[in-house]
UniProtKB/TrEMBL annotation:
This is Taurine ABC transporter permease. Residues 1-23 form the signal peptide. Residues 45-255 form the SsuA/THI5-like domain. InterPro entries: NMT1/THI5, SsuA/THI5. Pfam families: NMT1. The keyword Signal applies. Keywords: Signal. GO terms for biological process: thiamine biosynthetic process. The lineage of its organism: Bacteria, Pseudomonadati, Pseudomonadota, Gammaproteobacteria, Pseudomonadales.
Amino acid sequence: MNYVPKALLAVGVGLALTSPVSAADMPLKVVLDWAFEGPQAMWSAAAKSGCFQEKKLDVSIDRGFGSGDTISKVAAGSYDIGVADFGSIVAYNAKHPNNPLVATFIVSDRSSASVNVLKSSGIGSPKALEGKRIADTQGEASRVLFPAFAKENGIDPGKISWVNVSVNLRQASVVRGQADAAAGHILTVVNGLRALGVKREDIFSMPFAEYGVDVPGNAVIAKPAWAEAHPQQMRDFLSCTVAGIKTTISDPQAAIASLKQYNSMLDADYEAEHLEFATQVAVLTPHVKQNGLSNIDPGRLNRSIEQISEALGVERPPTSQVFTADYLPPQSELSIATP
């Protein structure tokens, strides 16, 4: 799908999000890609709606610490379901063909991966990043996808110096002059810089999606064996996911209100802005408006996997190993009613 809004905003947000249960409900452990912030409101909205309880799912949802961490936890069996960046899933499956993960639902039709700089740096194009320092944490989605971004824009990856920092220090590294750019979810980085006193008009962003890397963003993931063993639970969870997404679109204020229960540090107005950006830029794209949620075009799906694999220099994993539509709700549920 990211945002480090207020310095340590999510450090204290370790609360698990749970739904009311009965003795017959099936336990289901879920880990997000990031903290309980605006873009994650779909999950709190789904829990608040009673959908999980109605489907007899005892759902516990924990915050995440980036796609790489989430993928590791789901692959290890610590969680049944996760939310992670599509590019990171492709990269993981290419390196672990005997223990793959499969995306069962595309949450973000468009990736929010990006590189961001201060305009005062003089960097005004992707090529100008050569010889510069980019701050990011290892395994973060934008860093994983960077080779594809570099290939599409004629960047020599060998001329990039990576500054390894935790996600909450990326923006500070740029402001302090310890790095020339910060890679990451565009809104996370931009708002992180704004929180440090940088004006939006003083930031130059390079969204990968606008520079030749048109791949999906966040997706719901699971082990294939787990999904096959629990097909109804997988379908029901995705049905509630759709309900949560629709709430963020039709009633974003209610979605944010549901989120605040699990994040005592939440700035409702700030996160509402974050949610609006994520919805309009990554989730409710023209394609989704026309075709519904998670209805990815097969040609685009194959191109995305090929582009990512080629850029990373790894063997292309089979498409069926990366994404399956077997557990999607009916098209009538996936369709989005827009004005």
